[in-house]
């Protein structure tokens, strides 16, 4: 796992390094420029074979200063460089002004002209464009000053042109990944020290192209309050359950199903819980649906639950270690009573789909939740539970930093007292104590074929199975999100929901388990 930072966190890390005397601004800017050039030549090796031409777009802050360093370094390699500056040189920050002056000894500085730049890009003949206009310092839309340039860069990228953004594509919110109003698209984004939240959420990946993180010599230690980017688990994933133990030592998950003709989603969840390693999974269904469940399931146990009394009797078994409720469950009065009992059992509990809809209908719903609950909503379900947060998330931010999916789930987790997993290609996860993580099925981990009916039901089952095995809720949600996507990637295009649980053994083999 690695960290994702906000713009403010990155500024604080740089300021702390300079206060300690580890580096000054001039040194960091030089390292950043070197990192950009190294990343460009590594990503496009043919650029290092012969001197080519570059167009460098510099802005009025330190991102522009990085651009001046890159222009100088490319020129020293024999490149032909054109450079445009937005803003007055005498208003540049000191380190950027120093590098402006160093560049001025080598080449011309042309004033910003949106129309001229667009014409220049459309004319072609440029091998590399460097966006050093605003980067992570952008706090408002740039359409008014760079709208034609942004459109021309879009055409340039579509024609396989190479555009490198320094730190962030200008016009893209660093914290939320939202378009602030006109973004310069890139095919490669080189950021420093750690990746940024906005590169992995909302519109971020559509504008960033690919991400490279360049080391500029800052403290490698963790940043308080940062967001965890969920990656492949380590060997500890295989250490749950006693060696030589019996099935109950690996947990017992109880999944509640809906009525006849509506059990498919719960069966998918049960299969997910089984395949992720729960030692025992019981599917509880109304009597009318038992034959239907039995016709499709063999490894899961079946129990009849028609009413609250049946569930109460079942929950007397202390070996049931986690519950999953919601997929295909129904939203009637019977189901509402069963939900209340499940919540009152104080066992680890995953609420998904109909379970979330039922929760939203309860009076004071969050007063019934506890710290071992995991909510797994998609966007619509999130809006029913947290309408104000969803409305804020849907609105276009007037300026940066914009309200992000991470902000939304942190607020939702704090309000509800449960772990909240907001599903999507940019799945955001938060715990009530403020910890947050993101699993991004983007860039090299993209799995668009995962957008298939029933996939979310399997995710709920995977998380329930991990809870049953003793994983803490935040860890279970984060690990479940990674396993879910990895199973889809192992299977590949053509995936349907039934394939996800069956792909988990191959995922575990790939992890060396």
Describe what this molecule looks like in 3D.
By secondary structure, the chain is an alpha/beta fold. The chain folds into two domains: 2-219, Rossmann fold, CATH 3.40.50; 252-511, Ribokinase (UDP-N-acetylmuramoyl-L-alanine:D-glutamate ligase, 3-Layer(aba) Sandwich). Helix content is 41%, strand content 16%. The chain contains 18 helices and 19 strands. The strands form two sheets. It has a twelve-stranded mixed sheet with strand order 8-1-10-19-18-17-16-15-14-11-12-13, sandwiched between helices. The chain has a seven-stranded parallel sheet with strand order 4-3-2-5-6-7-9. α8 packs parallel to α18 (499-510). The two termini are 19 Å apart. The model has no long low-confidence stretch (mean pLDDT 95).
What attributes characterize this protein structure?
about 525 residues; alpha/beta; Rossmann fold; UDP-N-acetylmuramoyl-L-alanine:D-glutamate ligase; 2 domains; about 15% strand; multifunctional enzyme; potassium
Q: Can you identify the CATH class of the largest domain? A: Alpha Beta
What structural class do helix, strand and pairing data support?
alpha/beta
Side by side, the strands of the main sheet go: 8-1-10-19-18-17-16-15-14-11-12-13
Instruction: Determine the oligomeric state from the structure.
Output: single chain
Distance between the termini: 19 Å
Extended strand count: 19
Over all CA atoms, what is the radius of gyration? 26 Å
Helix fraction, binned, reads: 40-55%
Mean pLDDT: 95
CATH topology of the largest domain: UDP-N-acetylmuramoyl-L-alanine:D-glutamate ligase
Number of helices: 18
**CATH homolog superfamily of the largest domain:** Ribokinase
Percentage beta strand: 15-25%
Principal-axes geometry comes out as elongated
Q: Give the name of the CATH architecture of the largest domain.
A: 3-Layer(aba) Sandwich
In the residues, how many domains can be counted?
A: 2
């Amino acid at each position: 796992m690695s960290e994702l930072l906000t713009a403010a966190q990155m500024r604080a890390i740089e300021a702390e390094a300079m206060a300690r005397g580890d580096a000054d601004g001039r040194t960091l800017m030089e390292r950043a420029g070197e990192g950009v050039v190294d990343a460009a030549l590594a990503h496009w090796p043919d650029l290092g074979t012969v001197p080519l031409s570059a167009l460098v777009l510099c802005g009025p802050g330190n991102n522009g200063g990085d651009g001046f360093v890159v222009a100088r370094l490319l020129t020293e390699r024999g490149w032909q460089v054109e450079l445009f500056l937005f803003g007055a040189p005498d208003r540049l920050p000191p380190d950027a002004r120093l590098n402006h002056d160093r560049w001025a000894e080598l080449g011309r500085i042309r004033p910003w002209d949106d129309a001229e730049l667009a014409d220049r890009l459309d004319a072609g003949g440029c091998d590399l464009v460097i966006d050093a206009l605003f980067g992570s310092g952008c706090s408002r839309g740039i359409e008014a000053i760079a709208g034609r340039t942004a459109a021309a860069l879009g055409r340039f990228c579509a024609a396989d042109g190479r555009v490198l953004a320094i730190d962030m594509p200008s016009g893209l919110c660093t914290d939320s990944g939202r378009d602030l109003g006109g973004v310069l698209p890139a095919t490669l984004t080189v950021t420093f020290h750690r990746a940024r939240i906005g590169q992995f959420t909302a519109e971020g990946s559509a504008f960033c192209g690919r991400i490279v993180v360049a080391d500029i010599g800052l403290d490698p230690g963790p940043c308080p309050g940062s967001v965890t980017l969920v990656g492949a688990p380590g060997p500890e994933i295989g250490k749950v359950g006693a060696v030589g133990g019996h099935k109950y030592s690996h947990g017992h998950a109880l999944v509640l199903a809906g009525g006849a003709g509506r059990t498919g989603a719960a069966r998918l969840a049960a299969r997910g819980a089984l395949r992720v390693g729960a030692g025992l999974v019981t599917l509880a269904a109304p009597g009318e649906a038992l034959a239907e469940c039995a016709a499709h399931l063999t490894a899961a146990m079946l129990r009849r639950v028609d009413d609250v009394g049946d569930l109460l009797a079942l929950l007397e078994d202390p070996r049931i270690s986690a519950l999953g409720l919601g997929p295909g469950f129904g939203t009637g009065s019977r189901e509402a009573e069963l939900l209340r009992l499940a919540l009152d059992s104080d066992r680890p509990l995953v609420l998904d789909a109909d379970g979330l809809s039922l929760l939203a209908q309860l009076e004071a719903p969050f007063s019934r939740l506890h710290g071992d609950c995991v909510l797994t909503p998609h966007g619509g379900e999130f809006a029913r539970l947290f309408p104000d947060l969803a409305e804020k998330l849907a609105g276009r931010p007037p300026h940066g930093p914009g309200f992000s999916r991470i902000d939304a789930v942190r607020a939702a987790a704090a309000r509800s007292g449960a772990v909240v997993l907001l599903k999507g290609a940019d799945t955001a996860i938060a715990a009530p104590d403020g910890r947050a993580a993101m699993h991004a099925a983007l860039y090299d981990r993209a799995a668009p074929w995962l957008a298939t009916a029933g996939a979310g039901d399997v995710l709920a089952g995977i998380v329930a199975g991990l809870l049953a095995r003793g994983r803490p809720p935040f860890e279970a949600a984060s690990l479940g999100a990674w396993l879910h996507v990895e199973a889809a990637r192992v299977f590949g295009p053509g995936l349907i929901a039934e394939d996800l649980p069956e792909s988990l053994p191959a995922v575990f083999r790939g992890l060396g388990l």
